[in-house]
Specification:
about 20% strand; alpha+beta
């Protein structure tokens, strides 16, 4: 009996052995499984953080474009190198953000703004950066190129150019989200010897850069100028290969080699001529496009004239523009 008992337990041990081995393998498998899972969680954590960082670069860009433009609006003094200035100020802000993330979440973030340049989209600025995110032993690194818009209504960005150009001629005023030139624009044109500069006494132009939705642009001159009227009332800007880009506007350049934008400069309305008024009126004056009026390189020669268009008669007021044939063609007006 005793011997048999030993034999039995030996046999049962042999029978149980595979089960024990299986169990050990299983335990090992689950523990590596857990490790693998935590690696997956960690790397998705890092990837999400890299995405957040990318969004932060975008927001920071918008904030800096706006504040750089607002500074120029305040001082009337152009930036000597807008790309460098935006790059440096974005870097300062990004350093603060990455430090905060490290302090709060223990994630190591690095962000280097490597360059800022004109984008192919005139309503955006190209920002290049390299980022690195590290959490424990998972690291993510990449180079990013972003076209960051200047059109986000949360960060309304003013057109700095008129403030620079008219700074030495009495400056400009702000009224109803428009720039009102008073006598400064006509004085500025006069100082350059431009003919009929007085046509721009009390002229206005939009303050905030907004993109015109009326595309194709030839709509502006059609249907009794209704589109033109809406465009002017809303203060829109148009794409233009002659108009300067946002970055060059910050440097006070009226034209530049980059694909840029243009907006109308609206002469003050004429009070109805039929009432025998002595209103100063011209048939020809500088063309009412900002890059034509602000093209002062070389002095005087860049501004060319346009013929008068009365686009609306409103309560005894005649709303007018002066336009050259190239711009008449672009916006669908009858040629002069
Ligand atoms: Zn328009
Ligand atoms: Zn430019």
């Amino acid at each position: 009996m005793d011997n048999r008992g030993y034999v039995m337990s030996g046999v049962s041990f042999l029978l149980v052995l595979p089960a024990i081995m299986l169990f050990m393998v299983f335990v090992d498998m689950t523990s590596t499984g857990i490790e693998g899972n935590s690696r997956v969680i960690q790397s998705s954590y890092v990837l999400n953080d890299a995405k957040d960082l990318e969004e932060n670069i975008e927001i920071t860009g918008k904030q800096v474009f706006k504040s750089e433009a607002e500074n120029v609006v305040k001082t009337g003094i152009p930036l000597s190198n807008s790309r460098q200035s935006i790059k440096e100020n974005m870097q300062i802000k990004m350093n603060q953000i990455t430090q905060e993330v490290k302090d709060n979440n223990g994630i190591e973030e690095e962000c280097n703004i490597t360059s800022v340049s004109s984008s192919e989209d005139p309503f955006a600025v190209e920002v290049n950066s390299s980022i690195k995110v590290r959490k424990d032993d998972v690291t993510h690194q990449e180079h990013i190129s972003q076209d960051i818009t200047i059109l986000d209504p949360q960060y309304p960005t003013p057109n700095p150019l008129p403030f620079i150009k008219c700074h030495n001629y009495g400056g400009v005023q702000l009224a109803n989200s428009r720039i009102s030139f008073g006598y400064s624009l006509s004085k500025y044109l006069e100082s350059r010897g431009v003919e009929n500069a007085a046509a721009y006494e009390n002229a206005t132009t939009p303050l905030i850069i907004k993109k015109c939705p009326y595309d194709p642009y030839i709509m502006h001159g059609r249907k009794e100028f209704k589109t033109l009227k809406n465009c002017i009332e809303n203060g829109y800007f148009h794409e233009s290969s002659d108009g300067s880009c946002f970055l060059c506007r910050l440097e006070g350049k009226g034209t530049c080699p980059h694909y840029g934008m243009e907006t109308y400069i609206i002469p003050s309305p004429l009070t109805n001529i039929s009432s025998n008024s002595t209103n100063l009126t011209f048939n020809t004056a500088p063309s009412s496009i900002d890059h034509v009026i602000f093209n002062d390189t070389p002095p005087g020669s860049g501004t060319y004239p346009g013929k008068k268009i009365i686009y609306l008669s409103e309560g005894g007021n005649l709303l007018i523009l002066y336009l050259d044939n190239a711009h008449r063609q672009k916006y669908g007006f009858p040629l002069a």
